[in-house]
Amino acid sequence: MTTNLKQPAAPDAAWQAEVRAGVRHVRDLASLPLSAAERAVMQEAAAAHKVRVPKPYLDLIDWSDANDPIRAQVIPSPGELVATEGELDDPIGDHVFSPVPRLTHRHADRVLLFPTYQCAVYCRFCFRKESLTSIGRGYTSEALEPALVYIDGHPEIREVILTGGDPLSLPDKALAEIRARLEAIPHLRLLRIHTRVPVALPSRITSGLVEALQGRLMVTVVTHFNHPRELTAKAEAACRTMRQAGFVLLNQSVLLKGVNDKIEVLEELCRELMYRLGVKPYYLHHGDLARGMAHRRTTIAQGQALVAELRRRLSGICNPAYVIDLPDGGGKVPLTASHVEGRDGETWRIRGQDGKARSYSEVVADC
Length: 367
Prior knowledge:
By secondary structure, the chain is of the alpha/beta class. It folds into two domains: 95-334, Aldolase class I (TIM Barrel), CATH 3.20.20.70; 339-367, no CATH class. 31% of the residues lie in helices and 17% in strands. The chain contains twelve helices and twelve strands. It has helices at residues 11-20, 36-48, 55-58, 69-74, 129-135, 141-152, 172-183, 197-200, 207-213, 233-244, 263-275, 300-313; strands at residues 103-107, 110-113, 159-162, 190-194, 218-223, 248-254, 280-285, 321-326, 331-334, 340-344, 347-351, 357-361. The protein has a nine-stranded mixed β-sheet. Strand 8 and strand 9 (331-334) form a beta hairpin.
């Protein structure tokens, strides 16, 4: 007598099933608990820019709250269709600094490499959403070869940043292939990965994925948590898996009106990222000039006030740098207000975190 026992799903099958169970197409929006009026106003925005939300992230949304901060990040809204003068298709100048397809070389010692233009989750505020919608191509080794040849031919490059698209949406085999090709280039030292997978699809962080990325190169994973509600037990477990593999974990958030522009929200996010997930808050980005995102951008002055208060409330290790990625390839520039108020010779006037200005006289030896 033969007994057929159902085998447990493989780890890969689990995360792939969560992608399939979420929103993958515009038509899937019909299954969401929205009114007919809400569904009608989002259709045009959904058609203009890609929609994808894995089930674990979809489950975080409080559908009774029209202003829910998780919903605001991934569910289309009519505000996206309102283009404001000054907004740009390519806000940070990716295309201008692209000498070969799928690569951006803006800074001497590092490059952005785009193995895929597909994401596990499509954020409505993404500064590359125009490109991701129009390109829509996945990974092939042939498509990436000109970029890899370029990296091999530029010995000044020390660091390769996998971005896109989301590189961790690729299969383990593809990640291992990319990693092996990069680590064979002798002048490379570090592999950095920009991803939203630990936030939106934490089950994707498997032992197979970790193994695919381990090799000669140091590995840094830069996550993208924007709100404390994203710090789930599964996200915590995913980060623990990567930490135990020896990966350095950093986080970059985007300052978004109606999502995380309150000091209490940012304080909890930054504290718990470091203390609970072991992820260093790295950057807090001022909103880029992506089209249709004026309704989500704060002013720079509002951002400066928030980070000044964060500095008063949190340990230095929990504080991100508030930066703006300047248009036309100007790079990331800190926006934190200076505490230096003036100088008279070797005596400086510096305002402390308590708001009081003090004199500081330099004492140095003559050599």
